[in-house]
Amino acid sequence: MAQYIFHKADSRGHDHHDWLDSRKTFSFGDYYNPRRMGFGALRVLNDDTLPAGKGFGLHPHDNMEIISIPLKGSLKHEDSAGNKAIAATGTIQVMHAGSGLFHSEYNNSEDEEAAFLQIWVYPETLNTPPRYTLGTLQQDATRNRLHAFIAPDNADGTYVRKDVWFSTGHFDHGTSFTYPVHQQGNGVYAFVIDGRFSVDGKELSARDGLGISETAAIEVKALSDDARLLLMEVPMNIHQ
Amino acid sequence: MDHNIPLKLLAIGYDPAIMQVVERLLNSHAGWEGVIALTGAEGLEKISTGNYDAILLCVGVSVADEGTFREAVNTHHSSTIVIRHYGGGSGLLENELRAALDHNK
């Protein structure tokens, strides 16, 4: 029987600084909730807003898959592997920290705020070489259908491990679909970016999250227009 | 565990630049005292001669090395908590430790 864990948007941890406003679904930084240490291999889901010109200064990471999904504006990325990129709305940034690197992420605008989802997934193997990929999310690929922008076989390199799929789509009110879980033992974390959805009969509003495990398929229906959903399929056992 | 005395922490990792950040973060936390080891040999030496509440296995430490460190901890100080630190001095550091300490209460 499917298992569910529901995280309402306003139950998330909240940090506000002059350089960052962050809503955290799972424990991170100063926000600690022992019942919210992640969902399987999904460890971090931060909903971050950066004021104009502000951001994360140079700092290190290792052994984590870090996915950034810009929702508003753009991020200026630089890292110690020599990568420099602008991750704008409509792109997906995937940073495999592996054996270690330093990076910075700033709002690329001096006039307007930027917003993005910062998502971390435990790595499949430790201490492998760092890798950076900036993928593109085609608008027409996500209109009333799911687009797997992270998948093991993605040709543009936007993959994180062999058992992780991230999908998103924009849906009109009433559009429904079934999401088949790709791999036995995986769970799916559904996060509503905009609008409202019914996921396996449970109603979710913007920035609500629902973790679903021990199931082979998930039933989804958009309950509003311009509704945008993110589905993150991850192994529930992080050390496979 | 008496929380009136500092929590003594050893972080073992092989990337000096990242480990400097880990050390700084550990020692910037009230009630924590952190030291680092930058090689496997230094880690084993510190495990055998020091007395730590928790040991963090950080950047570069392989699964095989982890087994060696855990075995050394079991030999010398079986009550010491050993955890894998992911992320490199990241926002996970504090709550990884707090979760491990809560689990061992």
Automatic annotation (TrEMBL), chain A:
TM stretches of this protein: none
One Pfam family matching this protein: Pirin_C_2
InterPro entries: Pirin, Pirin_N_dom, Quercetinase_C, RmlC-like_jellyroll, RmlC_Cupin_sf
Keyword terms: Iron, Metal-binding
Free-text comment on the cofactor: Binds 1 Fe cation per subunit.
Cofactor(s) the protein requires to work: Fe cation
Domain Pirin N-terminal: 10-121
GO molecular function term, any single one: metal ion binding
Residue intervals of the Quercetin 2,3-dioxygenase C-terminal cupin domain: 152-234
Listed Gene3D superfamilies: Jelly Rolls
Binding site for Fe cation: H59, H61, H103, E105
Record family assignment: Belongs to the pirin family.
Protein name per UniProt: Pirin family protein
Organism expressing this protein natively: Chitinophaga fulva
TrEMBL record, chain B:
Protein name, per record: Response regulatory domain-containing protein
The organism of origin for this protein: Chitinophaga fulva
